[in-house]
Design goal:
77% of the residues lie in helices and 0% in strands. It is mainly α. Helix 2 (29-51) runs antiparallel to helix 8, helix 3 packs across helix 8 (168-187) and helix 5 (96-107) crosses helix 7.
């Protein structure tokens, strides 16, 4: 799980470099998302040719809905990384389990008790700190990250429905294949020829994301989710480290306070979910 968090933070770092003038003229977030699916699909497709896994029936409708949400959420996240520090964007993205909880109430009929509502409230309070509503104007990047968390929260609902029906590797393979089709259609309207450095970074986004997904699935397969999922918050540590080393961005006290509050709320929600699942 720690390796997965390092890879995920690295994809956001590369997205930030591609979305700014670090490696050349900034590329559109949709083009970065296209590369994410293109090179991830090539990586997983190559693995499939070697492993030759047995594939079962595919729930195409669920996959399309899940992938559409995932592609939109990732694109917004990549866009946010170009405007605000990686630590802030990553911290706000941790709200996705909170939004998933709300969606689960209406779409899955789940019951939510006072502890989970309190955890959600704590996390949202942290988001308000990072959004800085009293500073005169809310940073557009923060709103983009909030939108990403909202859409990725909906994606979690579709993942829950798929996880009990299909094998993990099949879900990854189909997800990236459908994502490639969607992203290819979208990128036709914004495509710009990348530089040599940008091509390497684009390839890195896809390969690192495929590696992150593989590490994540292997972690939950080897231990209880309640044990390994809290380690996913390490993404924030890696994002902060990368941003400081590459872009010289040091988190402010407001960023640290907001991130800490969000993680506290999200961790409480994760703990409560684990207790509920065991019960």
């Amino acid at each position: 799980m720690i390796c997965a968090t390092a890879f995920i933070a690295a994809t956001t770092l590369l997205a930030k470099a591609l979305g700014t003038d670090t490696l050349g003229a900034p590329l559109h977030p949709v083009q970065i998302t296209h590369a994410r699916f293109l090179f991830a699909a090539l990586t997983l497709g190559s693995a499939a040719l070697i492993m030759r896994p047995k594939l079962g029936s595919v729930d195409l409708k669920l996959h399309v809905m899940r992938t559409t949400c995932g592609a939109a959420g990732v694109t917004l996240m990549f866009a946010a990384a170009a405007f605000i520090p990686l630590a802030d964007a990553t911290a706000i993205s941790f709200l996705n389990p909170v939004f998933a909880m709300v969606f689960a109430i209406f779409l899955l009929g789940e019951n939510v008790g006072p502890i989970r509502w309190s955890a959600a409230g704590i996390a949202m309070a942290g988001a308000l700190v990072l959004l800085r509503p009293g500073s005169g104007a809310i940073a557009p990047g923060a709103l983009l990250a909030l939108g990403a968390a909202l859409i990725l929260g909906l994606e979690i609902i579709f993942i829950k429905r798929l996880s009990g029906r299909e094998a993990p590797f099949q879900i990854l393979l189909v997800n990236n294949g459908i994502g490639l089709v969607i992203a290819t259609l979208a990128v036709l309207f914004v495509w710009e020829p990348p530089t040599g450095q940008q091509w390497l970074a684009l390839a890195g986004v896809g390969v690192l994301m495929a590696a992150a997904q593989t590490c994540f699935l292997n972690s939950v397969a080897r231990a209880d989710a309640s044990f390994v999922v809290p380690f996913s918050y390490g993404t924030l540590l890696f994002a902060t480290l990368y941003d400081a080393l590459i872009f010289g961005v040091i988190p402010t006290s407001v960023s640290l306070i907001g991130a800490g509050i969000i993680i506290a709320g999200a961790a409480l929600l994760t703990w409560r979910q684990a207790i509920t699942s065991k019960a």
